Amino acid sequence: MTLTTKAETLRPVPYVLRDKWQETADTWSMALEPAEAWLQADRGEPGQFNMLWAFGVGESAISISGPTHGTGPLVHTIRACGNVTRKLCAMKAGEVVGLRGPYGKPWPIESLKGRDLIIMAGGIGLAPLRPVVYHILANREDFGRVSLLYGARRPEDILFANELSGWRGRMELDVLITVDAADSSWFGNVGTVTRLVRRNPFEVDGAAALVCGPEIMMQYSAQTLLDAGMNQDSIWVSMERNMKCGVGLCGHCQVGPEFVCKTGPVYPLERIANLLATREM
């Protein structure tokens, strides 16, 4: 039985925490499986999110960060920054969380077949883009040149560090990493992720970009891509908002005319550019 009706999707499904591992000082990934096989929910698509419920505390919108194809646990990556996320990150294997979803608009992967791709991520913004990389690697012949440009605050804040090294070693996509600040032990790039665009020249014609991270990072990344000659209709961004319901009812995630949980979180830049450029939006 797959939970698909509107009433059912508003009711959390019990999932068991099968495994959890620490990514950075304040970020963990968790693998979730349904408490009963018949409760298996939709695995979602790259870019979508689930509402995860820490019983007795509340629920929070968390992007799917693992593969969305095939079988296996559902993986979510969570930064402990509030009551709910701190509770989720403190849970132990065998405990039960509530899950409902998936919600939101995904990355337009199918429509990008045959094109060169630039994937730009900042901080934990890499988590919603990781399923895109999994999809590309599983269907590598469907895409042209693929570049992953990633920025973190410090070397110790780099998300999925071992996996990034593995992707670079596979030689199936270009992986460039930068940090805002580092000590003498760091031998990589230092500076904003936008600088990596100049270090990774690309053919504008036919290229598309997927961008996720802090809104100021997305604003400057989008402008850098536009300055390089890319059109607005070839750039997509994923907005992050305080989403409470996931279905556009509560209004917590509203920004301008958009209800991010329902009309987003993934938007073509041409639709959201004026809002993204609004100071302290």
What does this entry look like structurally?
- By secondary structure, this protein is α/β, with parallel strands linked by helices.
- It is built from 8 helices and 15 strands.
- The chain has 2 domains: 6-103, Elongation Factor Tu (Ef-tu), domain 3 (Beta Barrel), CATH 2.40.30; 110-276, Rossmann fold (3-Layer(aba) Sandwich).
- Strand 13 and strand 14 (258-259) form a beta hairpin.
- The longest helix is centred in the C-terminal third of the chain and has 13 residues, at 215-227.
- The chain starts with 5 loop residues before the first helix and ends in a 5-residue tail after the last helix.
Summarize it.
This protein is of the alpha/beta class and 281 residues long. Helices cover 22% and strands 30% of the residues.
According to CATH, the fold-level topology of the largest domain is: Rossmann fold
Structural class: alpha/beta
Task: Using the 3D structure, state the CATH architecture of the largest domain.
Answer: 3-Layer(aba) Sandwich
Output the number of helix runs.
8
Instruction: Describe the sheet with the most strands.
Output: 7 strands, mixed
Q: Write the element-wise H/E pattern from the N-terminal end onward.
A: HEEEEEHEEHEHEEHEHEEEHEH
Q: How many β-strand runs?
A: 15
Low-confidence sequence ranges: 1-7
Write the layout of secondary structure elements.
Blueprint: H1 6-9, E1 13-24, E2 27-34, E3 49-54, E4 58-63, E5 74-79, H2 83-90, E6 96-103, E7 116-122, H3 130-138, E8 146-152, H4 161-170, E9 174-179, E10 189-190, H5 195-199, E11 207-212, H6 215-227, E12 235-238, E13 254-255, E14 258-259, H7 260-263, E15 266-268, H8 269-276
Parallel strand pairs: 7-8, 7-11, 8-9, 9-10, 11-12
Antiparallel strand pairs: 1-2, 1-6, 2-5, 3-4, 3-6, 12-15, 13-14
